[in-house]
Amino acid sequence: MTGFLDLKGKRFGKLTAIYRIEDGEKGYAKWKCRCDCGGEIIASTKHLKRGTVTNCGCEPKKTADRGNIAEDLKGRRFGMLVVMRRGENINGRVSWYCKCDCGNETLCIARDLKNGDAKSCGCMKKMKNIRYKDIGGERFGRLVTLHPTLKRDKKGSVKWKCRCDCGKILLVTEDALVRGNTTSCGCKKAEVQEQVFNNVSLYDGTSYTILKFRKKPRVDNSSGHLGITLRKSGRYRAHIGFRGKHYNLGTYESLQEALEIRKYAEETLHEGFCKAFERWKRLSSDDKDWEEKNPLIYDVSFKDKEFYVTCNIKELGRKKLTGNPQETTE
User: Is the C-alpha dihedral spanning 56, 59, 64, 68 positive or negative?
Assistant: First the structure.
């Protein structure tokens, strides 16, 4: 093994060499050093011995040609680059480690950052060979485009890094932005769904409106029937959701069998709850105090493809009748 100068534990200005990293330029070893301020930096044997590097960057340093105090660039943005920490001087010039928006880290001379010669880690040069419409800085709904990336979708549309008004960063294709297919990170859809959810009749997290009126299956439904899924085996699986739970109703050879068990589940869970809810609302006459004191109970258990329902609507009807002779229990 080629011998090298052991600097471990030695001090150079405010720096103390901790351990050797690797060979650097022209065979000079690189050392991990800890500064008296607590910061760390990697510096070569040559720069340490010559006194070129004496701290992690915590102290201002004079530039090689002008003698001006080096400007602290930490945290500043230059194009796609954000300055992270002071780096080892390059040919006597102050340099900084920067994080590119594409995710890569690169070492840049401070002069190149400030005069605009360094704007990315090099990924922007690769983008010059890719044809794309420049929509940088434009707004599409809640999204503002930051910069294009090297990624494309299956159709060849360039993916842009975008910032949503909510603060989230995401990749969206140029086609989706220009055509208006994507206008937020998903927060807009969530807000709309919440508004719709709040505008329907709810009880204990259950939507009476959805249970009462939703009859069409989802567009990606494989069987064309609500609550029926066509398996790869050719069999039909029936299922139903109610009050945050999902019930597997079994798998059947024929579509008719699956539809029958699904219909039974709808009548018991959805229609049964809706009828109980309607009766409960008539009993309450929108009296919020009465509703709070007399909540509707509609609990369900499922065993051996049978539903067992516990409902207190008849009990509430008798209780209401006792307090108001004009009410009927129906």
Answer: positive
